[in-house]
Design a protein that fits this description.
mainly beta, 8-stranded antiparallel sheet
Length: 180
């Protein structure tokens, strides 16, 4: 079972009651451990009837090269979560080491319309918003959404991709960092 317990029917032998297989983790220790996991950061964006919506994510993983797929995770309490759930297609802009201000802007919990400045974003309603300075820009339809407790896992079928030279912006120990 997902909570670390097993029903009697799942256990070998004559077990007749639920048995705890492991103790619950200390939440602070868990979060502190995750803070040591360096990751790139990306802005995930989509269109809604009210305009573009997006947020910063640090849980991004390449999933498959054939077909080209990437996954990212979004906290359900995030303001843009509902928009992403409803979106047919999204963009994922992996930020470069000079994009700290963009990362800060999209890490806020509000949905301020100034996030998507036309000087930095290509805003064409038939395509997901595209961050022009992205180190890597990926876009395409969302092929799968998976409920994962406090988060939703999104799997993106990549149909558009571009990349440029540079170093990524990294999130480590609860702050944005450069590789150098």
């Amino acid at each position: 079972m997902a909570d670390g317990t097993a029903a009697a029917s799942e256990l070998p032998g004559d077990a007749c009651e639920v048995v705890r297989l492991w103790p619950p983790v200390d939440e602070i220790a868990f979060r502190d451990g995750l803070a040591k996991l360096a990751s790139g950061v990306a802005v995930v964006a989509c269109w809604t009837p009210d305009g573009p919506r997006g947020l910063l994510v640090s849980s991004v993983t390449g999933l498959s090269s054939d077909p080209p797929r990437i996954l990212f995770c979004v906290r359900k309490a995030a303001a843009a979560h509902g928009a992403l759930l409803a979106a047919e297609a999204v963009s994922l802009s992996i930020l470069a080491d000079g994009d700290g201000l963009e990362a800060e802007r999209f890490s806020r919990s509000d949905l301020a319309p100034d996030r998507f400045g036309p000087e930095s974003w290509t805003l064409e309603p038939l395509s997901p918003p595209d961050y022009r300075q992205a180190l890597v820009s990926l876009s395409g339809p969302v092929c799968c959404r998976i409920d994962a407790a406090t988060h939703t896992i999104f799997i993106l079928d990549v149909s558009g991709a571009r990349a440029r030279q540079g170093d990524p912006l990294v999130y480590f120990e609860r702050g944005f960092r450069n590789l150098a």
